[in-house]
Amino acid sequence: MIDRSLDDVPEPELPSAVRAVLAELDAEALIACLDELVQAGMPWLTETGRRRVQLMAFPHPKAGGVRLPSEDVLTGPADWRIYLAALGHPAAASAGELGAVLPGLPLAVVDDLIDLGLVGRSDLPWRRRTDGLERAYLLARLAPDKIGRAEAAALNWAEMERRHRFLDGEDLEDGDDLLALLTAFWRGEPDISLRTRLTPAARTLYDRITVGAQTGVWPRHIVADRGLWALLAALWTPSGPINPELSGFHAWRALYNCYRWLLMGWFDKVRPQLQRLLKAAETAAEDIADGIRTEIYNMGAYLAQETNELEFAIKLLRSAQELNPAASANLALVEQRRNTVINDRDHWENPYLMLGVPHGDPDWENQWRALRKQLHGDLDRLTLINAAKRRLMHAERNGGRFFVLPLDESVLVLPRRRSAVLLPEPEPISRRTPPSGPEELADLRARAIRSLLGELTPNAPIS
């Protein structure tokens, strides 16, 4: 039909036939033909379509490099508007329209859209990519606070890896950056320059932490952050008994002190502090973690044996058992002790603790030897440690059970992970792709060119 129309009167179906032929062409051939037809005066194209063809005749009509023929070219189908938007022109493209093409775009084009403000965090572009490293990269660009240590390592993102090393409790002694200064702060060694490097909000928090360390009293939101406990413990040296009802941290610190004093044999220091802890375990139960309350009850029961307050010890261990079934072994031991004639009872203390080592420590003999040298001439203490040695050796040969304290050693260990409250928000990763060129934009361009077929008017008159 097209050939006949060249030599004869054009048929009414000619515009439709031309459109059908054009639709079979690849995108670049299509725009070349449309450009020639427009220049030849083909009447079957809208005025806006003509101007769009004029713009697309440029191989890479990037904003700033090509002048738009008119404002109306900024409107049109989604494929058209998305291509112009990706080129930097002020064409509108909705989040849904962009989301539909994001999975197949080259990463450099996605970066362009991010830089142009067309794709942001709320669009969740990383969820639309199948490549794991690309997902991590886009997350790092738009939501760096969501990047984990493994993802930072996969991206070779040194700054974020270092941030995670700090948060994971590692000692960053290399360098003098903010993280190195904060590491020293967590050891109780504040640097005078640290405060000046903090954000205004972090500076206020820093002041409250350091001022509180003078009295051991901090605002509730500070002691509630377990990631700050190691810092508070390093900065604060209690001058007297601790009030464990103040917070979970104060209860932990009081319990830790009691345990250390037990290992030192300083029972006179343990008793008054333990009385406060037992009261707090009841009156401030909501603020004190179950693990800490369990150890408080367990330690109370341990010391109650010294004065043969076995019913009280059993009561405490039953409370501990409700929180941690592991207390049942100690409970059985104390109940057995209660049912044994006083003169037939073994010494109440755990022999490991008598030697100043944790329960079950395999190196207890080395500690015993060291104590023999230290206690030379102190007959009372030597008698006790020698008795402890005999009991341990007997247990190793014949088996034996001792009161276990603590039930869970991890309760007495400060949280290793540090809080991020003194850190600034993480900066997004720098762009790692070059600006996209014609090759990266080829698919969007092809879609935009094919959308020009919609500008043809097949029902227009042929004359």
Secondary-structure blueprint:
Blueprint: H1 2-7, H2 14-23, H3 27-39, H4 47-56, H5 78-86, H6 95-101, H7 107-115, H8 132-142, H9 149-154, H10 158-167, H11 178-186, H12 194-197, H13 200-212, H14 220-223, H15 229-235, H16 248-264, H17 267-283, H18 290-304, H19 310-323, H20 327-338, H21 351-354, H22 364-374, H23 379-398, H24 442-451
Task: List low-confidence stretches.
Answer: none
Q: Based on helices, strands and strand pairing, what is the structural class?
A: mainly alpha
Assembly annotation:
single chain
Compute the number of strand runs: 0
Distance between the termini: 16 Å
Instruction: Give me the Rg, rounded.
Output: 38 Å
* Strand composition percent: under 5%
Fraction of residues in H or I helices: 40-55%
> What can be said about the biggest beta sheet?
none
Characterization of the model:
The chain is mainly alpha-helical and 463 residues long. Among the domains are: 2-126 and 435-455, no CATH class; 218-348 and 403-418. 54% of the residues lie in helices and 0% in strands. It is built from 24 helices and no strands. The radius of gyration is 38 Å and the shape is elongated. The mean pLDDT is 90.
Task: Put the structure in a nutshell.
The chain is mostly helical and 463 residues long. Helices cover 54% and strands 0% of the residues. Among the domains are: 2-126 and 435-455, no CATH class; 218-348 and 403-418.
